[in-house]
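Progress note, sequence design subtask.
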């Protein structure tokens, strides 16, 4: 039998993925506003790398509590 936490995560997985996609789209739009003729692939790599860095920092912060 699955843990209650796993069941709950499965219920919200789609919402979580949608929220992350909205976050990426938010920063893609900001890059588009600030940088004319942007290399979208390069910008996407930078945005995703920074989200990973931020996520790691949040994970470390939560684990320290």
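Output:
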């Amino acid at each position: 039998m699955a843990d209650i936490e796993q069941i709950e995560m499965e219920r919200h997985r789609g919402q979580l993925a949608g929220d992350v996609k909205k976050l990426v789209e938010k920063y893609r739009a900001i890059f588009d506003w600030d940088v004319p003729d942007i290399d979208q692939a390069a910008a996407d790599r930078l945005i995703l790398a920074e989200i990973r860095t931020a996520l790691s920092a949040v994970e470390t912060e939560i684990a320290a509590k």
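The helical segments are 4-34, 40-63. Work on this subtask will continue into the next period as scheduled.
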